[in-house]
Amino acid sequence: MIINVVWLPPENQWDQYTFQLLFNNRKWLPVGSYVFAHHKSFDTVPNLARGIILVVPHKYYVEKVDWINQSVEKYKWLLYVGTGNEEAEFPIEQIVHPNKIVYYT
Question: How many independent structural domains does the chain possess?
């Protein structure tokens, strides 16, 4: 099974490194495990994708919550990974999706 991972720019933030290791299949790839397809925008995610993992560097998207919500509404499931919210300015409670799991650092 292929799982699509969308990395909103800018990528390669220091607090995303653990997620990069988890989703790159380089450290460990057991038989039958998931394969991750990486995307830099929603535009390259296949239309038939049922769900995505979305990695958002929060400090760059404080004013773009509505855009994020509109971008993920077509998916049946969402694993939302928020990073870089040390200032606690990102309104994580405003991310709306009927079938989501939220993880943030």
Answer: 1
Which residues are CB-neighbours of 103 under 8 A, at least 6 positions away? Answer: 79, 80, 81, 82
Among 5, 82, 78, smallest CA distance to 46 is for 5
CA atoms of 86 and 14, how far apart (whole Å): 13
Neighbours of 6 (CB within 10 A): 22
In this prediction, residue 91 carries a pLDDT of 94
C-alpha 48/C-alpha 72 separation (Å) is 13
Task: Convert the pLDDT of each residue in 6-49 to its tens digit.
Answer: 999 987 777 787 788 778 877 667 777 788 999 999 999 999 99
Domain of residue 84, CATH code: 3.40.50
**Domain of residue 68, residue span:** 2-104
8 within 8 A of 55, measured Cβ to Cβ: yes
